[in-house]
Q: What sequence folds into this?
């Protein structure tokens, strides 16, 4: 079990290195989420897996690696499609929690 | 804006979701390719969301799976509006008819304005344009502006330039008038002769030789101003005599006036006939017999149906016969004479040689006849221009 974890870490490391060497975007090669802010009013997230929690003051978005916790006031989902989500409201903090 | 327009065109619903697993509901929608927008919380276990009408039909299994209750708050968009309209057949028919009417109306001219004419009568230009097809109610596509311009200029001598500008349903005809050369005086030899009998009051000869003087009595046809101009140094020459000759003239008319007249006492009974005339075909709307009265006055009225200035050939006509009972009433001597004078004045006016003549004096004499009537004689004196041109035949 311990060996497998080590292999995974090694594998990711290789992917990461390959992306950096070939100058490829990591969000595509490593399935990492891509976040685009418009000030503190709007947040656009690509490559997410789903919504873990949805509330007025906190929204948790599940991604391939970690959970993104968006805290703020009057938060709402502007639109949601298969691979992208746009949030709006008074965003106060964004934290990455848990993960592999 | 573009996205909103597409959403409106495709139609969308606003839903209120309530349940414990709303996040799961969103995730399943997301994985099944359902696009959601304007999501906001409406309490601990409920949220409001918008989605397309097509996606809404895929919701029941998702709602069952996540135990979410779905309530439609609002339906918006073009398909929803059209579906509502389908039930309003007459509204749709009206809408189509209105659109058809607007489109048809836009194919015709609604007004023709003429701009720029100061000396030429606009009616004259209108008449020429009407002959060439530019008139209220004309079909716009049949108007060839170049052809109208060329033909109208050829027909109207007083214009040097003309342009027809058709914008929408209005045609503006701009014209520029010619600066005309001065009138050339006629040169053929002619005399001025008397057109009526009278005593000369004034004679003003601008060309020719005066043959009469003020105070002379003249008869009709008598030479007043001669075309022959005598000269002491050279031989006589022929001219186009011109001038005004004013003479005192008298006119006398008589009439027998009665001291009674027929008065019509209307009973208030009327007999009305109504009909619709379509071309030469008559469609009676009421019995078309003779009036059941012995004495009546008939009034006819016709209302023509005109569309875009064109008579459609359809008219609504009415004939009203108003019954009266004739009554012979006595009138005063003064009233009878006054009525006769008015009648005689009208007869004299009609007999005048110069219709613009001034009346200098008027007298009335009346003789009582043995049968109770009065013979009224009206004598009027006028100051008339009696000179008329008469061509001289030169051998």
A:
């Amino acid at each position: 079990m311990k060996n497998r974890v080590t292999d995974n870490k090694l594998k990711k490391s290789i992917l990461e290195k390959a992306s950096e060497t070939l100058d490829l975007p990591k969000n595509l090669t490593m399935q990492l989420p891509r976040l685009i802010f418009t000030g503190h009013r709007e947040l656009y997230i690509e490559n997410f897996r789903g919504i873990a929690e949805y509330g007025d003051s906190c929204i948790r978005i599940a991604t391939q690696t970690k959970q993104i916790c968006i805290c703020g006031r009057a938060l709402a989902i502007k639109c949601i499609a298969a691979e992208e989500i746009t949030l709006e409201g008074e965003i106060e903090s964004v934290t990455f929690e848990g993960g592999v | 804006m573009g996205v909103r327009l597409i959403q409106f065109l495709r139609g969308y619903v606003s839903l209120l979701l309530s349940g414990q697993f709303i996040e799961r509901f969103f995730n399943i929608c997301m994985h099944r390719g359902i696009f959601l927008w304007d999501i906001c919380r409406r309490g601990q276990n409920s949220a409001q969301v918008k989605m397309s009408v097509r996606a809404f039909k895929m919701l029941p299994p998702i709602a069952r799976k996540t135990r979410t209750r779905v309530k439609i708050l609002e339906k918006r968009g073009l398909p929803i509006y059209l579906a509502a309209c389908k039930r309003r057949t007459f509204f749709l028919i009206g809408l189509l008819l209105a659109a058809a009417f607007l489109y048809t109306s836009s194919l015709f001219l609604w007004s023709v304005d003429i701009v720029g004419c100061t000396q030429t009568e606009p009616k004259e230009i209108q008449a020429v344009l009407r002959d060439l097809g530019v008139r209220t109610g004309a079909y716009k596509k049949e108007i060839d502006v170049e052809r109208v311009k060329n033909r109208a200029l050829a027909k109207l001598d007083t214009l040097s330039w003309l342009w027809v500008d058709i914008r929408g349903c209005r045609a503006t005809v701009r014209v520029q008038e010619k600066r005309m050369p001065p009138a050339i005086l006629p040169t053929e030899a002619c005399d001025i002769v008397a057109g009526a009998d009278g005593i000369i009051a004034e004679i003003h000869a601008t060309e020719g030789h005066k043959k009469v003087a003020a105070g002379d009595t003249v008869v009709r046809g008598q030479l007043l101003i001669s075309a022959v101009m005598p000269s002491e140094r050279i031989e006589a020459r022929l001219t186009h005599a011109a001038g005004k000759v004013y003479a005192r003239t008298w006119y006398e008319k008589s009439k027998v006036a009665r001291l009674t007249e027929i008065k019509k006492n209307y009973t208030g009974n009327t007999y009305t006939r109504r009909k619709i005339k379509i071309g030469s075909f008559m469609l009676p709307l009421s019995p078309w017999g003779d009036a059941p009265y012995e004495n009546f006055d008939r009034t006819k009225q016709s209302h023509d149906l005109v569309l875009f200035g064109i008579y459609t050939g359809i008219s609504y006509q009415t004939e009203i016969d108003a019954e009266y009972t004739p009554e012979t009433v006595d009138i005063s001597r003064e009233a009878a004479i006054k009525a006769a004078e008015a009648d005689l004045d009208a007869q004299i006016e009609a007999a005048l040689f110069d219709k613009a003549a001034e009346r200098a004096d008027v007298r009335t004499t009346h003789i009582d006849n043995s049968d109770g009537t009065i013979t009224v004689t009206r004598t009027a004196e006028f100051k008339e221009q009696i000179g008329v041109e008469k061509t001289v035949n030169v051998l």
